[in-house]
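Internal ticket #5521
Category: modeling
Description: The requester needs a full-assembly model to guide mutagenesis choices. All entity lines are attached below as received. Residue total reported by intake: 226.
Assigned to: D.W.
Attached entities:
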Amino acid sequence: EAEVAQSPRYKITEKSQAVAFWCDPISGHATLYWYRQILGQGPELLVQFQDESVVDDSQLPKDRFSAERLKGVDSTLKIQPAELGDSAMYLCASSPGWGLTYNEQFFGPGTRLTVL
Amino acid sequence: QQQVKQSPQSLIVQKGGISIINCAYENTAFDYFPWYQQFPGKGPALLIAIRPDVSEKKEGRFTISFNKSAKQFSLHIMDSQPGDSATYFCAPGGDYKLSFGAGTTVTVRA
């Protein structure tokens, strides 16, 4: 069964350092999402891509966060510099982006970030 | 997330019992109503979803009931099993976006 891949699974860093997360969506999925999930809360959308284009980054803290999906396949989310409040699970999801199931989102296992 | 309210925050049920989780939303433009299941350390997984043209959908032990006029939908877990112990999120949405509730932690006692 096709799955969304993410790496690393766990990341510990010190504040002010740079971190990067990688996501490989399900093959053929045009839409890719990055979410942040704070412990005990639901996922919150950070950025949404349609192919290689950003369609929504309104909740992305652009002073320190950046995201790219250069070839419209895999994606990278970067934080520089990391702050203590960035400690969370970072989830990637993908969606077919078309057809009757276009709203269905499939999530990866996430990257657990701890900032010390 | 303020436009989606999920209740209860947590619940404990005996094995074989029924778990009921409710979700209220404000955005009348939503046209897709899913429930996601998440185990500790894992990403959410789609459990069951409904579209607004039907009032109920059943898949195995899981049922969604949808009340469009009240802007509410609920998840019923019948014959709850210990393996159902997880956090459940409603995530109504549309137009390629989902709005997640805060989650309900379900514990099934053997």
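Resolution: model delivered.
Comment from assignee: The radius of gyration of chain A is 14 Å.
Ticket closed.
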